[in-house]
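Re: the request from the purification team.
They wanted to know what the chain is likely to look like in 3D before they choose a buffer screen. I agreed to run a prediction and write the result into the notebook, where they can find it.
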Amino acid sequence: MKNLTLLGKINMGLGVVFFILGIFLFVQRFNETIDFREQYHSLSFIFIGITIFLLSFLYKKNEK
């Protein structure tokens, strides 16, 4: 994390928040039967969280 810019660190935190929110929504709506028609929001948040987290590694400080 030392080699990430401030924007990269913010994006990493935002990705973790979206991922946790998606997991929370998934567990909250989870029944004995898994119906993915009701899980679109939670799966979207999980996917967006993972994507933002991985994209945060593109923001690296310039080494001089």
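For the purification team: The chain has one domain: 6-58.
Please add any questions underneath this entry.
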